[in-house]
Task: structure prediction
Amino acid sequence: MLEIKCPYCGKRSQNEFSYGGDASVKRPALEKEISDKEWDDFVYFRKNPRGKHLELWHHVSGCRQWFKVSRDTTTHEIHETSKINEEL
Amino acid sequence: MTQKYRLDKKGYINRKKLISFKFNGKKYFGYEGDTLASALLANGVHLVGRSFKYHRPRGFIGAGVDEPNAKVQLYNKEDKNEPNVLATEVELVEGLTAKSQNCWPSVSFDFGAINNLFSKFFPAGFYYKTFMWPKNFWYRIYEPIIRKAAGLGVAPLKPDPDRYEHKFEYCDVLVAGSGPAGISSALAAAKNGAKVILAEEKPRFGGSLLSDEVTIGNKNGKDWADESISQLKSMPNVIVKNRSQVFGYYDHNMMVMIEKTKDHLEKPSKFIPRQRLWYIRAKEVVISTGSIERPLVFANNDRPGIMLASAAKEYMKVYGVLVGKKPIIFTNNDSAYDCAIEFKKNGIDPLVLDIRKSSDSSIVKEAKNLNIKIKFSHGVANSKGHLRVNSANIGKLNDSKSSYENLENVSCDCICVSGNWTPTVHLSSQSGNKLKFNDKIDAFIPNQSRQNETTIGSASGAFTLKKSLEDGFSKGYELSKKITGKDTKSLPPTSNERSSEEHDKFWCMPLPKGKHYKRFVDFQNDVAVSDIELAVREGFRSIEHVKRYTTLGMATDQGKTSNLNGLQLVSNVEKKIVPEVGHTTFRPPYNPVTIGAIVGREVGKNYRPTRKSPMHSWHEKNNAVFVDAGLWLRPRYYKQGNETLNDAAIREATNVRNNVGVCDVTSLGKIDIKGSDSAEFLNRVYTNAWMKLPVGKSRYGVMLREDGIVFDDGTTTRISEKHFHMTTTTAQAVNILAHLEYYLQVVWPELDVNVLSTTEQWAGAAVAGPNSRDLMGKLFPNLDVSNETLPFMGFKEEDLFGVPARIFRISFSGELAYEINVESGYGIFMWEKIMELGKEMNIEPYGTEALSTLRIEMGHVAGSEIDGRVISSDLSLEGMLSKKKDFIGKRSLNREAFINPDREKIVGVVPLDRKTMIPEGSHLVKDNKSSLPNPKLGHISASCWSVEYNNPFSLAILKEGKKRIGEKLYALSPLKNKSIPVEIVSSHYVDPKGERVRS
Ligand SMILES: [Zn+2]
Result:
């Protein structure tokens, strides 16, 4: 079970959180004309890297905040976590 | 009462307390402090079971967790039984009853032993090769036979009556194993201010100090261990636990430990759980799990009476039990001489066979001085005896150790073997440590730590006491300093031990000339040398494949005694060195763990939380039959007399259509939305327009996922300019909140909006039916409830006899209806007022079954239609899709599959006979006699008995949807063996224009 540092609450066990996928995905702006490929990339396509992965987690059984986690997908090492508006 | 093999004085058992127990139906005696194994051995019982494949007689090999054979089935007083328990780990208590496993009809006459006579037909991979064809034979013939013959224990049929609990703990340093290294590191770390947990799997602390002849400081090893443990126990920053095994090393230094809390107690209090599972998050982990002796391998090396030398010594030293009175000690190293000397000191003359040409170590000299008979360059070639070894064929090895110079028969009643030591690296490996092979000890040891883990003592390959103490103290100090920043250093005490020389790498004895006896490598899985050779010959190269093909190192013991010998063998056959062959993966748990302990308290109704509405007690008192709706318990119907579910649903729904009914809708998800951008936010998350919704009005909305699929629906009400009240379905309430939070926090943080779940804050009652307006007038005498002032989709706040209430004129039933919300604490007050004042209008409560009936015949969609596969137009909700604005999921709606005209869409279905209920899930087909697979046109999503038309009615998702209205099809349910001729009708079966809700 991972130990994840919520930027608001501190270190908590993984079972308080839910996983939110790739944090580098940017939703296209509303009303913006975009190609099918751009939209498909946003909705369906995710990289599945071996190693460092920037991802979102949600502190569902805690402060209900979404935040960013830099995690190694092979070792599960968590390098850093940050609030959504901070750079990682 | 005689325990013929019990020594007079030795051991740490309590001789004042005699204990009776039963094994295979026979009564025996032992002492408090015995294990089942030591007590049986004290009575001269070696035969404990039959082997897995060949049903060969088997006895004890080890004295603890390393035991591969002695698995027994335990029966306790409450008619509860437990399979696959190691007799070496069961502490003796009065009345304990155990039986051998895997034998029929009895352990000494086992019918399955016939497999042994035909053993040449059971080579490695036998099952794979033999039972491949014909295919249907597998299910009918092979599998049932194998199941009968190859069982381990018998799984209990009743639910586990015991209580197990979970505990969460945090510490600076967790020390796994209380041998000399473990105690040292715990002492050093604790004295330097660290919060320490010291875990020992056995009842007694001390590990090897319990049976080794050593001194530490000026005390003998065991006294030093006892004093150190008392010292640790007295420190407030230390938790010391025996009967507690750390069995799993998980991510981020999460360690899982199982503590046996009850079974060893004679009269346990009923409040004690049977076992306690500890989740321990440790900043640093010290692995001092020791090492396990390897067997030497020779022909028929599996007879009862042949065991590890370390185990024989432990039975003498700890339990005062002789494993035999005519022992042969067979070794390739010095450590087994400890065992020989112990026998000699107890008046027994052992014969030592040493594979080595010579040894000048102090321990060998000591043995010689005691006149112990030693034969160097000698070994056991074969053993004899039926249910117990009675003699050994021993011989002198030639120079190349490929054959014997001579062979002679020596009678014996036990053979104590030692093939050197294997560090217990399971936890290290589980942590991600890449092990390395140590040529000097012929075993893998931990190398590069991946997590905060340090292995010391013999688990690290350090086989001397001096090194174990030194490493223990220095690592305990270093690790604690890193965490506490303190600098109190304790020095290791001086120690005294016997010195030893190197072992001989030879361990697998040649067969006597011309013989084809089995030489076992893995006792638990009956894997012999010949099986591994065959696997390699047949082309299996990867050790993982050899493992699966031969079953080497599988099952409960996970190769504790067999892994390295197996690896050595594969490398010998392949002429490789062991590190090239590598090792199989160590996975948790290190030892089998009772499922009950893993589950803990989360059983039965505690499996998950139960959510109840504030009106729950009223429902109970009024004969409600409840149904699970997610975590909620909702009234399904209110039973009258001996009504069936169907009768009640029809009665309740009819009363709503004719008079008035009330339904508990508390479980609907409720989300409070506040902030100046609230309307803009709703405009983005719902498919329809929200900017112009006036204050005091509700609107129905549909949400999509970004992929265009319908996510959820519900009504949202504008309470004030910047304040909305959203409702979701019961099922999606949790997901919708997370969804909204995601968009507000991650995607559009610039919006000034806050969301908060208020599901539990409001009690909700839906009042529906033609009489509902009259009832509302009585409930709210000061409110003008006319259609003009409170029209469909109107909202008012008004006091309900002094209690602030929210009134929404919304309807799920399709009737004139209102929903009243009050603060949860007033829920029962509201409900009773509604029932009281509604009495004269013939009010009746209705449950979810009637609610379904009402919504189905009105064609309102719910979870059975919004099933994660449909888009708005499939549900005839395309009118809800705004063309003027963008919203979540809109860009996906022009996907090719979504604009395909023959998509499956919602319709209504009635049986032609107007009588037969159509089972939900039935498939709609054109021809009920078509060959299989019959092309499916759609499926029935929900069925009810229409109270309006008094015949069955269903909703379906059907290809081309409304275009088929009027067509005749068949509804097929192979599960219920039904084929029903049906007609397609509109999904809006009742009041298609929606006049009633607006009346
Ligand atoms: Zn948090």
Notes: The mean pLDDT of chain B is 93. Chain B touches chain A at residues 250-254, 279, 281, 432, 450, 684, 706-707, 738, 741-742, 745-747, 749, 885-887, 891-892 (CB under 8 Å).
